């Protein structure tokens, strides 16, 4: 956070249209009782909701948020008695959490000009919680704002969505992301991080960007060798598969699969005439072009789907990683063999 960006709306980067809409609502005195912020993960939905809470309760710069007055400080520190943030308990937002919200809303606000309750990942409410929460939205307390956040393609019941004013938040622009990454990501890894952030401030990229950039370079070499072995002399294929399978079973296997997904997706787009600058791995277009030469027709798309399936098996179903990866390499070999044939 820059020195000039101390709190409220001033601390936000990107999402200018959303900020302007919120400020118009505040100036007009037409803040709804419930709001839904929808967009990809890690683009600042919760941060925006907290900035709105500051703007509504700020005594230094009302309607904007100064970040320095007691209400702003308490909100940023998470200790304001009338501003609550609710996150999923495990996989879901549960009915017990909704009941806690209901109990809080039944009390008179202690300090706030407008009480704010933020429900993060509201699309992960279980059925009982969603039904209970609907009753709160049907009879919202006075001087209270309920803000729900949900990912794009959310699964919230229409009965809840219809009672909220919905604002959509898209990916962060590159200049905003670059500013947020400054001082947190090594300069020589920033361009890599921006490509894989895809408009989202992913926390793991902030801490692992340099390591993952090196990992990607290794993966590119492995994929070069795999494509070459599949097309030509395949005597080294078993040893190569064994080596890369063990390597992908390490601590960074999630990114290894993410990168493979990006590589085959890039190949599918490139083979359909996509511009190099639009590819995630566009800074290594030569590699992408060489990989495409090993696959015919719709094979890159099929390989991409195979990687997605493998990710689901390993992440959701917790299958044996070595066996899943070996099966994936065999599928890739099968698909690349079509071009050789």
Notable features of this structure?
elongated; single chain; Rossmann fold; alpha/beta; 5-stranded parallel sheet; 2 domains; 341 residues
What's the layout of helices and strands?
Elements: H1 16-28, E1 34-38, H2 45-57, H3 70-77, E2 83-86, H4 95-105, E3 115-119, H5 127-138, E4 144-150, H6 158-161, E5 165-168, H7 174-181, H8 187-197, H9 203-231, H10 237-248, H11 253-271, H12 285-292, H13 299-315, H14 321-340
Parallel strand pairs: 1-4, 1-5, 2-3, 3-4
DSSP summary, beta strand count = 5
The CATH architecture classification of the largest domain is 3-Layer(aba) Sandwich
Helix content: 40-55%
Number of domains: 2
Q: Report the span from N to C terminus.
A: 56 Å
- Give the SSE order as H and E letters: HEHHEHEHEHEHHHHHHHH
Extract low-pLDDT stretches: 1-5
CATH topology of the largest domain: Rossmann fold
Gist of the model:
With 341 residues, the protein is of the alpha/beta class.
What does the model show?
With 341 residues, the protein is α/β, with parallel strands linked by helices. It has helices at residues 16-28, 45-57, 70-77, 95-105, 127-138, 158-161, 174-181, 187-197, 203-231, 237-248, 253-271, 285-292, 299-315, 321-340, and strands spanning 34-38, 83-86, 115-119, 144-150, 165-168. A five-stranded parallel beta sheet has the order 2-3-4-1-5, sandwiched between helices. The radius of gyration is 24 Å and the shape is elongated.
């Amino acid at each position: 956070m820059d020195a000039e960006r101390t709190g409220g709306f001033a601390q936000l980067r990107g999402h200018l249209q959303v900020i302007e809409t919120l400020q118009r609502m505040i100036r007009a005195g037409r803040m709804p009782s419930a709001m839904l912020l929808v967009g990809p993960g890690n683009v600042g939905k919760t941060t925006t909701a907290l900035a709105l809470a500051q703007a509504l309760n700020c005594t230094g710069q009302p309607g904007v948020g100064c970040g320095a007055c007691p209400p702003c400080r308490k909100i940023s520190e998470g200790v304001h008695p009338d501003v609550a943030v609710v996150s999923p308990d495990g996989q879901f937002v549960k009915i017990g959490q909704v009941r806690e919200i209901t109990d809080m809303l039944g009390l008179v606000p202690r300090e706030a000009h407008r009480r704010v309750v933020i429900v993060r990942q509201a699309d992960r409410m279980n059925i009982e919680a969603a039904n209970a929460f609907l009753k709160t939205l049907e009879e919202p307390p006075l001087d209270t704002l309920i803000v729900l956040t949900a990912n794009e393609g959310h699964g919230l019941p229409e009965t809840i969505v219809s009672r909220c004013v919905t604002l959509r938040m898209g990916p962060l622009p590159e200049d905003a992301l670059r500013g947020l990454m400054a001082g947190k990501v090594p300069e020589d890894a920033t361009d890599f991080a921006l490509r894989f952030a895809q408009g989202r401030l992913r926390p793991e990229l902030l801490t692992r960007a340099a390591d993952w950039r090196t990992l990607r370079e290794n993966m590119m070499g492995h994929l070069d060798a795999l494509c070459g072995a599949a097309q030509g002399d395949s005597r080294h294929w078993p040893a190569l598969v064994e080596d890369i399978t063990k390597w992908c079973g390490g601590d960074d296997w999630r990114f290894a699969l993410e990168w493979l997904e990006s590589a085959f997706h890039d190949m599918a787009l490139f083979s359909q005439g996509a511009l190099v600058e639009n590819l995630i791995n566009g800074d290594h277009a030569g590699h992408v072009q060489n990989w495409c030469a090993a696959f015919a027709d719709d094979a890159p798309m099929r390989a991409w789907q195979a990687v997605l399936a493998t990710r689901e098996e390993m992440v959701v179903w917790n299958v044996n990683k070595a066996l899943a990866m070996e099966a994936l390499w065999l599928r890739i070999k099968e698909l690349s063999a079509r071009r050789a044939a």
